[in-house]
Design brief:
By secondary structure, the protein is α/β, with parallel strands linked by helices. The chain is built from 16 helices and eight strands. The longest helix is centred in the middle third of the chain and has 27 residues. It binds iron/sulfur cluster (SF4). The site of iron/sulfur cluster has 15 residues, from helix 4, helix 5 and helix 15.
């Protein structure tokens, strides 16, 4: 078990080495996907490896000549990595407009450091009506066609359905690990859970599935790592991986994470693809799902706050830790509503503003300790 967990942690903390080694070993191409909604299954069906772009492991330096320093950490760090030629092992990149800050990234890349293959997708917001679904299906067809050109391999309905099944299996294995954590809080540390999900975004899915299958029975037999701790839920963290040091602090200060609503967490594997006659339509239908509510999708009728309140209640959690990525407009726009609603419900909530650069951990510790006092005071 420790070997598998170490492997996931190694991939998550150093994707550069893991992916260059994978490429050397397999001779296959790697395609980077901007988080959070590109259907990786189509890339997988073309025989190439889809990987979700990540926040790098260095301070941003060169990148600040190309992107504002008031952009979110993910976009700044990604541009920095590209300009430092750290992502040259990627054969292609696929972007879409997820938010205001993501909008300028593709053109910056295309103008200054174009990869061998480049695709900008127009993925629609979740406004109601059939035209959006039809438009999305046309875009997915365009994506499929482009991937066939890049890979020199036809993507048949059969190969795409096969990839969807592999991805569905990964989602169901990850869900089982989440269920285990809910049932036996503390069995899996928050940093371990992050590495498990994040590595899925970076590894060959068949290999990830097989490692998860060997890990699950071991985890089921693992002793709980913590005693009587305060149950909390994590939320936010759009696109960007949270700092593991912050996750450790949450646990060190007396809490245990029982569930989350973060992208490098439950959002990544939410919703299977329902297989039907047309796999592209099936992928479009997964994209159009409104749960979990996504603040980047322009769907103001779906209430993210309701979803979060329900998540806290269904997990019998005592509070929620919001990880707000600095300068992330979609989360910032919703946050006042979230705060008001949690106050109204009497559910303690603490906001931790996180950056790509490490924040002052002592300040975070103090906020978390104060948060615990609030929870205990209301208990
Ligand atoms: S949604 Fe937030 S984290 Fe994601 S790219 Fe936009 S600003 Fe950055």
């Amino acid at each position: 078990m420790e070997k598998v967990l170490s492997r996931f942690a190694a991939v998550s903390t150093d994707p550069y080495t893991a992916l260059t080694t994978w490429k050397q070993d397999t001779g296959r191409k790697i395609i980077g996907c901007f988080p959070m909604r590109i259907p990786e299954e189509i890339i997988h069906a073309s025989g190439m490896l889809p990987v979700v772009m990540w926040r790098g492991n260095e301070a941003v330096t060169l990148g600040h000549s190309y992107v504002h320093n008031f952009n979110c950490g993910l976009t700044r760090s990604f541009i920095d990595d590209v300009m430092k030629e750290k992502l040259n092992f990627m054969d292609g990149m696929i972007f879409y407009r997820s938010c205001l800050q993501a909008e300028e990234i593709p053109s910056t890349i295309e103008l200054n450091a174009p990869p061998s293959h480049f695709l900008y997708l127009y993925l629609p917001p979740l406004y109601p009506g059939i035209p959006f679904r039809d438009f999305l299906i046309q875009e997915l067809k365009r994506m499929k066609q482009r991937l066939e050109e890049w890979s020199g391999q036809e993507i048949t309905n059969e190969s795409l359905n096969n990839s969807i099944e592999i991805y569905n299996k990964n989602r169901s294995l990850l869900k089982r690990i989440y269920e285990l954590r809910k049932k036996r809080p503390g069995t899996i540390k928050a940093r371990e859970m992050l590495a498990i999900v994040h590595s899925s975004m970076l590894m060959d899915k068949e290999e990830h599935n097989s490692l998860l299958e060997s890990l699950l029975p071991e985890l089921e037999g693992r002793k709980e790592l913590t005693g009587d701790k305060i149950r909390v839920v994590l939320s936010g963290g759009l696109c960007q991986t949270p700092h593991t040091a912050i996750l450790d602090l949450i646990e060190e200060t007396g809490m245990v994470v029982v569930d989350d609503d973060i992208y490098t967490g439950s959002r990544y594997f939410a919703n299977d693809v329902t297989l039907g006659d047309n796999p592209l339509e099936s992928l479009a239908d997964r994209y159009m799902k409104k749960t979990p509510p996504d603040p980047t999708m322009g769907d103001w009728n779906t209430l993210w706050t309701d979803y979060m309140v329900d998540k806290v209640k269904e997990n019998s959690a005592k509070g929620m830790v919001s990880l707000l990525i600095k300068y992330c407009p979609p989360h910032l726009c919703y946050y006042p509503d979230i705060r008001r609603r949690f106050d109204k419900e009497g559910i303690p909530e603490v906001l931790l503003e996180v950056e790509h650069e490490i924040v002052s951990l002592e300040q975070v510790r103090t906020r978390l300790q104060a948060f615990i006092e609030v929870i205990k005071g209301g208990a």
